[in-house]
Amino acid sequence: LITSQIQSQYFRDFGQSIQVDCQATGNPSPTITWYFNAQPVSSVANNRLSVTQGGSLKIENLELSDSGVYQCFASNAAGETKVSAWIKVDQSPPMFISSPLNLTLVEGADARFPCEVSGAPKPVIIWKKKLDNIESEVTTGGRYQISPTTNELLIITTEPSDSALFSCNASNSQGSIYAEATLNVYQRTQITQPPLAITEVEKGSVASLQCGVSHDVNVNITWKWYQGQVELNPSDRITIEQDGTLTILSVYSSDNGVYKCQVLSAG
């Protein structure tokens, strides 16, 4: 008597594995024999297919040729019984579960591009980088890391030179797909020429305080100047130049104080 609950049909994707248990009771203890399309499994030239000591059928890394009818026979001196099961190996083209999205970052931040794909056989994933119409394959190394399990592309401590169009390309025997995302990495805005610690001018003359900045050409910046805690607004005496220089005409004694330059930008 076969005691295992064997389904009449099993559906699995290409590349998956399957185990079908076949246990039987009887006196004397029955012998378990598996057949594939009417041939004993033991005679099938397939090292991915095996029968365990407990009588279970195991097939590793399923292929299309594994589709068919499998029969488990349990026999002893008292007789024989069997059950049959049909195993169908399916194929499917690649489909995105998650795909990369456009990113805009300031240099130094990490960039992560997901690329999770389903499909049978298991799709092959290739990352590519395109800059100035020149495309190259991205592989793991240095600041670029590709997860072997999720296919996520990680760029560690991004630099402006990382700015490019990245694409995740997935393919198997059933088709191919790709998804693109743009990475923009902006240079970090920095004050490179702060105001002098002490600036001395004569009363009634012109005072100029510089605030030089390095920044990404794609990023708009705005300067703000403060005298103490009070923000200075342009007037007939006070001007904030396009390069951030603060110019004060006809300085008074009331202009004495501590001046602070603040630069605002997206980066």
From TrEMBL:
Main location (coarse class): membrane
GO cellular component, one term: membrane
Cytoplasm listed as a keyword: no
Pfam families xrefs: I-set
Signal peptide: none
Taxonomic placement: Eukaryota, Metazoa, Spiralia, Lophotrochozoa, Mollusca
InterPro entries the record matches: Ig-like_dom, Ig-like_dom_sf, Ig-like_fold, Ig_I-set, Ig_sub, Ig_sub2, Ig_V-set, Neural/epithelial_adhesion
Localization, UniProt: Membrane
Protein name: Ig-like domain-containing protein
Top-level taxon of the source organism: Eukaryota
Residues covered by the Ig-like domain: 15-84, 94-184, 194-267
Species name: Mytilus galloprovincialis
CDD domains per UniProt: Ig (cd00096)
Keyword list, A-Z: Disulfide bond, Glycoprotein, Immunoglobulin domain, Membrane, Repeat, Signal
